[in-house]
């Protein structure tokens, strides 16, 4: 092995009760490179990284860290070898300050007391080196997700990590925060730190990664230099075929009704929303654009009865209704597919079949929905269509890959009788091939005469899928555009309050 190698993986295999999820993968991470790991949902990316971080034990194979070979690692051993994985669910203690979190378990002491000043000073130095402006005395619960992530990275630096593993780090971040994160990663790279970077957003990979390794169905496919490859080639390697045209063709206006108003909200106001009014037509896909924090999710939650409104009215098919709880919303035919699947979408500990057999929704709706055979068949169809990858429907949802968990959430709602469906960031964490399936699906709903509210931070989705686009800024509606008039620039201007 050459000197330049940070990490070598040799024939690494993982199986769960006999099913192989990673099959004799070999690859190499060089010193000071940002190495992308890409592949469809369930390809084995997270599993591979967890083995490198010592959190999952390989079934077979070797991990070589700077020349030392291991057949199994523990999280402690991996850490000692300078490997740190930054998890989505952060390991920070929310009631403690930033600097206290950096020193948990390794507090610096002066006599019998902890040396607060010294720890604060060291913390400030680390963040200065990272180029991050943060108040180290703030509590974790008061800082944004983006900063939590940076605190995790700072912690790794303090522990002198040589290899950082970032699993979909940008998923919850705003554009500005992503820029900040990338600047930080650039600085770490200059210091010779290696990084493994997992993301479904290929643009990001072209922006910051030096090399790319592609996995497909647990198999190693290729490692390439970022320079010299293209998005199309990567997609082909990931899914094993060309992806025909990303967005489905628009339906002709004649094919969908578009005249009947199914939902009307007037003057919705609460702590986050200011006088939000709009109408949703039958068979319409209504896009809501805006920056993170603009009030899109809050609008969805208010309509779904998950948040209370202090003022405003909701009309469904012309009738004024009170929606005081999700239960009432579902009874009125409104479904919300939330962005935060971990907390609201599925019951992770339950099996896939329990989740999708509408148990959750039935509980919500007080057994309003009958779980008959027809619905079950419909559900199986959705699972098939969304191409959910699982070994068995009896598997707990938490043992599915991230993207497949998201698909379970979708499948669950799709089987309901709701005819107004609100999708909040439906493709977050979803691979390119499956995204296309979800787009096709939205068009199918439309064709069936259902109405969709689509909240998305991906501009191309908003522009290519919506019939009409509403733009929000600081809790208010700042614009409405027909799909023919909408451009990225116009939407962005309105989204930043211009
Ligand atoms: N504890 C477990 N028990 C059984 N199967 C598991 C377990 N953990 C992971 N798997 C399976 O291993 C496969 C690979 O999952 P992994 O999470 O590594 O995929 P991924 O590439 O990270 O996908 P995504 O992009 O969706 O996050 C999946 O089919 C998953 O269901
Ligand atoms: Mg994953």
UniProtKB/TrEMBL annotation:
It is a peripheral membrane protein. SMART domains: AAA. One of its GO terms (cellular component) is plasma membrane. InterPro entries: AAA+_ATPase (IPR003593), ABC_carbohydrate_import_ATPase (IPR050107), ABC_transporter-like_ATP-bd (IPR003439), ABC_transporter-like_CS (IPR017871), P-loop_NTPase (IPR027417). The keyword Translocase applies. SUPFAM superfamilies: P-loop containing nucleoside triphosphate hydrolases (SSF52540). Residues 7-242, 257-495 form the ABC transporter domain. Its main location: membrane. The keyword ATP-binding applies. Keywords: ATP-binding, Cell membrane, Membrane, Nucleotide-binding, Repeat, Translocase, Transport. GO terms for molecular function: ATP binding; ATP hydrolysis activity. Pfam families: ABC_tran (PF00005). It is found in: Cell membrane. PANTHER family: CARBOHYDRATE TRANSPORT ATP-BINDING PROTEIN MG119-RELATED (PTHR43790), GALACTOFURANOSE TRANSPORTER ATP-BINDING PROTEIN YTFR (PTHR43790:SF9). This is ATP-binding cassette domain-containing protein. It comes from Sporofaciens musculi.
